[in-house]
Amino acid sequence: VFILVERAKTFEQHAVIYLAIIVTMIISYLILKYALKLARLLGATGINVMSRIMGLILTAIAVQFILNGLTEAYKAAVAS
Predict the structure, then answer these.
(1) Which letter does DSSP use for residue 1 in this model?
(2) Residue 48 near residue 56, CB atoms below 8 Å
(3) What integer pLDDT is reported at residue 1 of this predicted model?
(4) pLDDT for 22-44, tens place per residue?
(5) What average pLDDT is seen over the chain?
(6) I want to staple 8 with a disulfide (CB 3.0 to 4.6 A). Which of 3, 13, 52, 69 is the partner?
(7) What is the pTM of this model?
(8) Distance between CA atoms of 76 and 80, rounded to whole angstroms?
(9) How high is the pLDDT of residue 2?
(10) How far apart are CA 45 and CA 37, in angstroms?
(11) DSSP symbols for 3-48
(12) Percent of the chain, pLDDT > 70?
């Protein structure tokens, strides 16, 4: 979020970032508020599947961060 806000130049870009934060907060609140109902609805198998999917997404994000860092380091090394 800090990087996105730093790179945002127009009011519209800032508005989209803050709107995304608010939407994320609302979704997080609703998920936490209805966690017991969601757990009953999904069951043990559904929760296990969701945990694996979220782990996969987290892994993909981590790999992307690493690749971005390596790319920037390579660009900096080539430029100097």
Answers:
(1) -
(2) no
(3) 87
(4) 999 999 999 999 999 999 999 99
(5) 94
(6) 13
(7) 0.64
(8) 6
(9) 87
(10) 15
(11) HHHHH--SHHHHHHHHHHHHHHHHHHHHHHHTHHHHHHHHHHHHHH
(12) 100
